[in-house]
Amino acid sequence: KLLAEFEPRLTGAVVTGAISDAHRVQLHAFPDKAEMVDVFLANRGIAAEPDERDYRYGDGRIESVPLACFEAAGVGIDVALFEPGQQRRAPLSPANGLPAKRLTLAQAEVLAAEAITTVLGP
C-alpha cells in the first residue's frame, strides 16, 4: 500500500508459494523515473540500497532493471523499478520460463486473506 502511487505488483516466491526464509519479497513498480522511489522511501525514513537485476523476456532480450532494496519488519524487500507502461509486459520467471505472475494490490490482498489450508490445498 505504501508504494501504491507506483502501481506495484507482487511477484516471485510469495506469489507462487515457493517461499523460504532465504527469499525476499519481490515487487515490480512503475515510476516515471526510478529515482522517484528512492526519494519517496528516503522521505519516509526508509534506507534503500540501490542495485539492479537482469530480467529475461520471451523474445530473448535481457534487460537490466534498477532495484531499491530495503528491510521492513525483518523482511527483505526488493522493488524492481520498471519503466511506466510495462505493467502488461512481464519478464519470464526464472522458475518455469513463463511470464512471471504479477499481482495487483487487490489481488495480493485476496491472496493474503486466504486460509493457509486453501493455499496449500486440502
Sequence-ordered SSE layout with sheet pairings:
Blueprint: E1 9-11, H1 13-16, E2 25-29, H2 34-43, E3 49-56, E4 62-72, E5 75-81, H3 105-113, H4 116-120
Parallel strand pairs: 2-5
Antiparallel strand pairs: 1-2, 3-4, 4-5
H-E string: EHEHEEEHH
**Nearest-angstrom radius of gyration?**
15 Å
Give the helix tally.
4
Helical coverage, percent range: 10-25%
Overall spatial form: globular
Strand content: 25-35%
Task: Give an account of the 3D structure.
This protein is of the alpha+beta class and 122 residues long. It has 4 helices and 5 strands; from the N terminus they run βαβαβββαα. Strands 1-2-5-4-3 form a 5-stranded mixed sheet. The longest helix is centred in the first third of the chain and has 10 residues, at 34-43. The protein starts with 8 loop residues before the first strand and ends with a helix. The model has no long low-confidence stretch (mean pLDDT 89).
